[in-house]
Write a structure and sequence with these properties.
single chain, alpha+beta, CBS-domain, three-stranded mixed beta sheet, two-stranded antiparallel sheet, 16% strand
Length: 161
């Protein structure tokens, strides 16, 4: 397979990634996570510690999976939840300690994160995402988030050729 070139050079993840990445703390409550994801209009975010080190990834699918296996507060109708309404539902039920009621990001995040370096070729990133059946790759340098490449970023890139 020949690497795709952009103005006589190969296209890397750095060329197509989103560099202004929304990240979240592992201690963030799930209702606040839902608000953050909805406000940013994204489906997932890297989880970083207070020094910016990548710890994992959390997505709305992780939240829904946790809710569907009974980790939600009593009375929360997991089978009928729609993600866009989830933040309102959870915030309406949360009282003094939403972490106790709903959990925290660290409780539902995926710690084993697929990541690539900024210099990784775009076609390599596409192959990883296809093989692993995932929708986003963290672009990291020395455990620090440099950006994120999503399946939509790749579709836009390959569609513009």
């Amino acid at each position: 397979m020949t690497p795709i070139s952009l103005q006589s050079r190969t296209v890397t993840c750095q060329d197509v990634m989103t560099s202004n990445v929304v990240t979240v703390s592992p201690e963030l409550g799930l209702s606040e996570l839902c608000r953050v994801l909805a406000e940013a209009d994204i489906s997932g975010a890297p989880v970083v510690d207070h020094q910016g080190k990548l710890l994992g990834m959390v997505s709305k699918t992780d939240v829904m999976r946790a809710l569907s296996v009974g980790r939600q507060a009593p009375g929360l109708p997991s089978s009928s939840l729609h993600f866009l309404g989830l933040a309102d539902t959870m915030s309406g039920m949360a009282e003094d300690s939403e972490e106790e009621a709903f959990g925290r990001v660290i409780d539902v995040m995926t710690a084993d994160v697929e990541r690539v370096e900024p210099e990784t070729l775009v076609h390599t990133a596409a192959r990883i995402m296809s093989d692993k059946r995932i929708h986003r790759l963290v672009v990291a340098h020395e455990d620090r988030v440099a950006g994120i490449v999503t399946s939509l970023d790749l579709l836009e890139h390959f569609g513009s050729r």
